[in-house]
Amino acid sequence: MKIRSLLIANRGEIAVRVMRTARALGIRTIAVYSDADRDALHVETADEAVHIGASPASESYLNIEKIIAAAREHGADAIHPGYGFLSENPRFSNAVRLAGLIFVGPPHDAMGLLGDKIASRELAIKHKVPVTPGALLPNPSPDAAIAEAKKIGYPVLIKAAAGGGGKGMRVVRSEAEIPDSLSAARREAMSAFGDDAVYLEKYIDNPRHIEFQVFCDDHGNAVHLGERECSIQRRHQKIIEESPSIALTPELRAEMGAAALRIVQGAGYRNAGTVEFLLDGDKFYFLEVNARLQVEHPVTEMVTGEDLVAWQLMVAAGEPLPKKQDEIRWRGHAIECRVYAEDPSSGFLPSTGTIYRLTEPHAPGLRIDSGVRDGFEVPLFYDPILSKVICWADNREAARVRMLDALRQYVILGVRTPLNYMQDILAHPEFIGGNISTHFLAQHFSEWKDKLPTGEALAALLAAAAEAKAMATLDSPVGKIESHTPWKSLGSWRVAGAGA
Amino acid sequence: MIRIFRTGEQKIEAEIRHLDPAKMHVEVEGEVNALHFERMGRLLIFDGERRRYFTRAVRDKDRIHVWIDGRVHELVEIEDVNAADNADRNRDDIRAPMPGTVIKLNISPGDEVAADQVVAVLEAMKMEHNLRAPRAGRVAAVNVKTGQTVAAEAVLVHLEPQ
Question: Which of A250, A275, B53, B150 has its CA 20 to 30 Å from the CA of residue A267?
Answer without folding.
Answer: A250
